[in-house]
Amino acid sequence: MTEKESAQLQELRRGTAVLACLLMLRAPQYGYALLEQLAAAGIPVEGNTLYPLLRRLESQGLLVSEWNTDESRPRKFYRTSAAGDALAAVLLQDWRDLQSSIDRIAEETNR
Amino acid sequence: MSTTTSAPTLTDRYVYAVLRALPEAKRADIDRELRASLADAVDARVDNGEPAAEAERAALLELGDPARLAASYVGRPLTLIGPALYVDYVRVLRALLLVVLPIVLVVLVALNAIAGASLGGVIGTAVTTVLTVGVHMCFWTTLAFVVLERTGNQKPLLVFDPAALPAIPVPTGVKLSDVAANVVFGLFLIGALVWQQTASVFRDPAGVAIPILDPALWGSWLPYLIVLAVLTIVHALLLYRVGRWTWSLFAGVVVLNVAAVAPLVGLLVTGGLFNPEFLARLSWAPFLQPGSTVVTVIVAVLVLSGLGAIADAAVKTVRAQRS
Between B94 and B322, whose confidence is greater? Predict the structure, then answer.
């Protein structure tokens, strides 16, 4: 993949990071594990993007957090709030509409 | 909130660098979380077989410059002036530097010249003025816009209005004002040459006019200059008739300018231009001797304006011929 292609791909992915987090955090998770989960699911997000993003979403009320001190290493767990769920539903619907629009354009212009 | 008492590790120093760029209220929480995330990343690498030191270094590299990370955490913009205000910023700066600065410069130079400063002093003042005032303009304008940006002004200052669009300059037309200026200049030159001979303001004790230029020149150069002035008028009328600049018209400009400037410079430099009687009468002789400052300035002005006229004609001809 050339540099230009990967830049375009980043543009395409930038919008999906928020939706991916809101959906994934319906099950509570902490920072690094979420990073690995997203990468495994095919939506790699860098740490220096993800960690500030989680904080921003929390400050906007879309996530709630809780420190878990069960293990030797205390970890901050994030979970999608009710407002986050609502927004995720809206974004997901938008995402599906976009997908069908793109598919339709690809079909119709396929000569 | 590190509890380690041994020498600070790379992680400690990294976390410190991030935290010090953050407001006090956020530090404790980010400290804990960042350390936990870094420790998790290092553990994952070590489980993969990397040596501990390498893993730590790689994890820090992955997170990147602590200043950038801190800016991300706080939502701090990484620009001085954002896209919303930038266009207006450039407009203001350009207006100040291209309009206000020259005016300031002219006024200051005039004041200095009137106050009787030497030529070197005037030029020195001009240069320092341009630099000082120019730098101040850039700095304070930038500062004002940075303050606007930081206080949340995200909307452009000037709203786009189609009525205020610039007019397209006519590239190839010959302006009547240019032609008229040249004709008037030619006539004026002839008139001036005649006037200074017969009706000069400077009178000798008997009331007879003292010509400024050496009367002996009437035998050689002055009629030549009159012919050149007539040719300048003819050239201007030709230009108007043709309607656009051509290379032959440009050649005419070059010839006329060189033919006028060269002899004048030669006369000035050899001291043959001015009437000796005139010089004696006004005791201006030292100022107008060849090699004096005034003569040097006059020569420079003549040469520069000749070159300027040629350059101007060249630009107009190229533009006209290109379209």
Answer: B94
Helix or strand or coil: residue B163? helix
H-only helix segments in B151-220 = 176-198
Residue A32: closest CA among chain B residues belongs to which residue? B37
- Note whether B62 contacts A75, CB cutoff 8 Å: no
SS3 A13: helix
Give percent above pLDDT 90 in chain B. Answer: 28
Using the beta-carbon criterion (under 8 Å), do B41 and A46 form an inter-chain contact?
no
- Distance to chain B for A18, nearest Cα, Å: 15
- Cα–Cα distances (Å) from B321 to B62, B243, B250, in that order, read 58, 12, 11
Q: Which of helix, strand or coil describes residue A45?
A: coil
**pLDDT tens digits, one per residue of A45-70:** 889 999 999 999 999 999 999 999 98
Residue range B236-257, pLDDT digits in tens: 888 888 878 888 888 988 998 8
Which residues, 6 or more positions from B225, have their beta carbon under 8 angstroms from its beta carbon?
A: B189, B193, B260, B263
